[in-house]
């Protein structure tokens, strides 16, 4: 049976979220507080569209969303997103409720209040900072609400650490080289593992030492 | 009534928030009123001797500006249920304010928030009961 998604939002974001969930095969209900928008969405997408307040328990029940698998709250006000997620999980027992928060600080606030939250602003800033600063990074993953990040870094021929033993690589104290990917192999490095050109290393760092860590590994000074 | 003086933050300075803030101020408590719209402070009476903070109370920095870490009591009395309930939870769960009371309009929401440990006053039910009492 298809998974059910219940998405509260507005504007083009709601349209694109709806379209994306439909493309993944979900049965989708979209909720908007704007009646004109509701009519437009109903015309453009093969989704159930409800005009109302997603944080009103009566409305949620009426919309038949109490047995939904996923609730996404993506309204312009974070207090509405918090209420939608809490009512969905506490009152209706929805297993996955996720808020798209506007204020990046609210990622932490929501998590302390037991609600999963993602900030598009924070993700965008992370990605842009990493990309702009270091072309060599292929993948970057924030961990623990951004307290640490996990990055894959390519060791090119001009990298100063190529040919060095891991023990001799002067990484900052808050950086840890956790894996060396070499061809088909994934090597857990020891002090005497020698880094080679073409290796891809996986490194965990704190954000404030991230730049320094990358400079040590790639020699880049951009 | 309380004998000692409290530090109270009232969020939302509409007629209800202003009334509560005025009364608490007249009783000698230290009161800070927070509202996103500074015209709302016009609802306060001349006898009000507390402080005013203009800003969105769902932002942590605004609550900190109101010195929330010193507060004994936070009253969330804006016109929006979801604002009141977010402010109340942030004050209680994250910032550890000993007592927090939120105004809520929709009685159906009250139950969920009581589960979260937020004390609520449902103005709809209170007014409704007052009517019924008079009949």
Task: Record keyword descriptors for this entry.
heterodimer, A: 222 residues, alpha/beta, six-stranded parallel beta sheet, five-stranded antiparallel beta sheet, 11 strands, 33% helix, B: 135 residues, 5 helices, 39% helix, 21% strand, globular
3D architecture notes:
- The complex is a heterodimer of chains A (222) and B (135).
- Chain A is an alpha/beta fold.
- Chain A is 33% helix and 28% strand.
- A six-stranded parallel sheet of chain A has the order 3-2-1-4-5-6, with helices on both faces. Chain A has a five-stranded antiparallel sheet with strand order 7-8-11-9-10, with helices on one face.
- Chain A is elongated.
- Chain A starts with a strand and ends with a helix.
- The mean pLDDT of chain A is 88.
- With 135 residues, chain B is an alpha/beta fold.
- Chain B is globular.
- The termini of chain B are far apart.
- Classes of the chains: A alpha/beta (222), B alpha/beta (135).
- Chains A and B meet through helix 4 of A and helix 3 and helix 4 of B.
């Amino acid at each position: 049976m298809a998974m059910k998604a219940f998405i509260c939002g507005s504007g083009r974001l709601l349209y694109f979220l709806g379209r994306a969930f439909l493309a993944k095969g979900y049965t989708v209900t979209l909720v908007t507080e704007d009646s004109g928008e509701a009519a437009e969405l109903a015309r453009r997408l093969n989704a159930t569209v409800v005009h109302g307040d997603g944080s009103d328990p009566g409305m949620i029940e009426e919309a038949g969303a109490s047995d939904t698998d996923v609730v996404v709250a993506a309204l312009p006000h974070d207090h509405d997103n918090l209420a939608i997620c809490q009512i969905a999980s506490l009152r209706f027992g929805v297993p996955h409720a996720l808020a798209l928060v506007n204020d990046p600080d609210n990622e932490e606030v929501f998590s302390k209040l037991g609600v999963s939250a993602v900030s598009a602003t924070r993700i965008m800033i992370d990605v842009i900072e990493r990309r702009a600063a270091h072309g060599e990074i292929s993948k970057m993953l924030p961990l623990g609400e951004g307290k640490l990040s996990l990055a894959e870094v390519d060791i090119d021929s001009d990298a100063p650490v190529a040919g060095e033993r891991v023990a001799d690589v002067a990484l900052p104290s808050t950086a840890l080289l956790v894996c060396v990917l070499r061809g088909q192999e994934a090597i857990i490095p020891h002090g005497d593992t020698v880094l080679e050109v073409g290796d891809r290393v996986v490194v965990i760092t704190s954000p404030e030492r991230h730049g320094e860590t990358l400079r040590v590994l790639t020699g880049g000074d951009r | 009534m309380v004998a000692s003086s409290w530090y109270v933050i009232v969020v939302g300075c509409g007629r209800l928030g202003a009334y509560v803030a005025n009364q608490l101020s007249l009783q000698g408590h230290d009161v800070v009123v927070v509202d996103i719209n500074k015209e709302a402070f016009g609802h306060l009476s001349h006898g009000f001797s507390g402080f005013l903070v203009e800003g969105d109370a769902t932002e942590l920095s605004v609550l900190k500006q109101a010195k929330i870490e010193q507060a004994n009591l936070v009253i969330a009395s804006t016109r929006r249920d979801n604002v009141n309930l977010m402010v109340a939870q942030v004050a209680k769960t994250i910032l550890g304010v000993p007592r927090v009371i939120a105004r809520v309009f929709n009685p159906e929401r009250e139950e969920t928030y009581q589960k979260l440990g937020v004390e609520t006053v449902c103005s709809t039910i209170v007014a409704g009961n007052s009517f019924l009492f008079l009949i």
